[in-house]
Amino acid sequence: MFSNMFPLAAGQFGALPIMPVQAMTQQATRHARRVYVGGLPPTANEQSVATFFSHVMYAIGGNTAGPGDAVVNVYINHEKKFAFVEMRSVEEASNAMALDGVIFEGGPVKVRRPSDYNPSLAATLGPSQPSPNLNLAAVGLTPGSSGGLEGPDRIFVGGLPYYFTESQIRELLESFGQLRGFDLVKDRETGNSKGYAFCVYQDVSVTDIACAALNGIKMGDKTLTVRRANQGTTQPNPEQESVLLHAQQQIALQRFMLQPGALATKVLCLTEVVSVDELKDDDDYQDILEDMRIECGKFGALLNVVIPRPNPNGEPTPGLGKVFLEYADVDSSSKARQGLNGRKFGGNQVIAVFYPENKFSEGDYEA
Question: RRM domain spans which residues (predicted)?
Fold first, then answer.
């Protein structure tokens, strides 16, 4: 496909001469200009890899160092089926990170940073993330699928139960914001999860919040390890503490939803729908109740709506900030969860999870 799109004269690459920059500068930036490409087919050679990556870099608009080819050198380890592709600039190497999963000779290849990549040093040499304006669709890729998973804000998520699906893990992580990149590591032979993943958030300011909220929580018989992939555990700054507290409440609900055997019930619990201030005024409270009955009644027979209110004497109120919906049957509550979970409400993303019926009937709103 690419040979038709971007025809090159035979032997154009030749010996792939390095661009005319000073040798000292080359050596200083080499670790940041090299790209690891894994999963190559047996037929791959230096010429075909160089031609292909120069083609696709041009196609996505990733060339930033002027006219000519982005690739200056290729080394292939045929036994282990990987290559090091050297780009002519640090910025072009970062743009190449968006090519993870691109189809080369009929199969997807992994595009990563080499093991000697130093994020701190590289950050002083040029951009460490791909440009957001790359035309990835030109080579059959979609932004935020598995590309863009490099740099200091890359998160390692370990200790995942093997029964977690990809969509369940994404849903858990997206409690904190939209993901720019996500990769659940799977066994090449079986296709099953290996129990760990990597992700990068679109808004990197939530990175430490997500790590602190998720790290150490129990999921079934596992304990999650969540941290920056290139660093040790980090702590959120003081300004993030209130956001972290709120995030931990969300994770508690998500954790319950993802437990093995957590079956659908007739009761649904919503968060991110009401604020405490809205519940203080009697008229506002009645309006909210009525709105909930009308809107949530569209999914089936709604028997009861419970919205705990703040205690006038200032004592803690169990379930404050949550909305409980009791339906006549599980089919209706399931439709409601599907329709409400993830919906935007007042700028927030609603989280809807099933709630134990016995706890609800006992008036226990803190389960």
Answer: 33-116, 153-231, 272-358
